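Why should sequence recovery work at all? Because a backbone constrains its sequence more than one might expect. Tight turns favour small or flexible residues, buried strands favour hydrophobic ones, and helices have their own preferences. The token representation captures these environments compactly. In the example below, the structure is given first.
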């Protein structure tokens, strides 16, 4: 509002600069709203992890241009403690990795129970994980952060990767 008010008193030479500033402030405001939503989606508190995952994946797929299928087990229910946000963050990071590194036009997200664990699978059909000079998989900050998120709950992260794609599996005790 202040910029709009200042624009009325500005020279015609500066009018375009004020318009640009208003646009930048509007974009920054929209980005902040989006970031705050992604930090803790309100839908998760209201109707649970499954619905929040469905919505996030749908929007992410549109923005990234990736066709992503989602399979959330019926009756998944609520998870205790911070387990829901841990799963949500791993999905965010996993799909970001698909978008940034895999080159895959498709991906899938599956969330289900197996015995006493919640299992998350994020799969793509991309180029696989990068290898170092010794032929070992190079893990970046994202993979390490997923492992750290699971550690307090005694969860596990597994990666299977080849030139035909990558499958990330996170298991988290209920």
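From this structural description, the recovered sequence reads:
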């Amino acid at each position: 509002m202040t910029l709009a008010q200042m624009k009325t008193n500005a020279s015609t030479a500066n009018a375009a600069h004020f318009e640009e500033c208003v646009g930048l402030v509007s974009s920054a405001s929209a980005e902040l709203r989006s970031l705050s939503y992604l930090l803790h989606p309100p839908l998760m508190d209201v109707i649970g992890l499954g619905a929040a995952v469905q919505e996030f994946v749908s929007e992410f797929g549109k923005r990234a241009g990736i066709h992503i299928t989602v399979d959330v087990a019926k009756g998944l229910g609520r998870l205790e403690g911070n387990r829901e946000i841990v799963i949500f963050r791993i999905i965010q990071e996993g799909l970001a990795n698909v978008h940034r590194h895999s080159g895959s036009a498709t991906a899938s997200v599956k969330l289900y129970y197996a015995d006493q664990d919640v299992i998350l699978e994020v799969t793509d059909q991309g180029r696989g994980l990068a290898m170092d000079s010794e032929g070992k998989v190079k893990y970046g900050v994202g993979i390490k952060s997923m492992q750290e998120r699971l550690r307090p709950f005694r969860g596990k992260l597994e990666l299977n990767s080849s030139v035909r794609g990558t499958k990330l599996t996170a298991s988290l005790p209920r």
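A few observations help interpret the result. Strands lie at 67-72, 106-114, 117-124, 156-162, 165-173.
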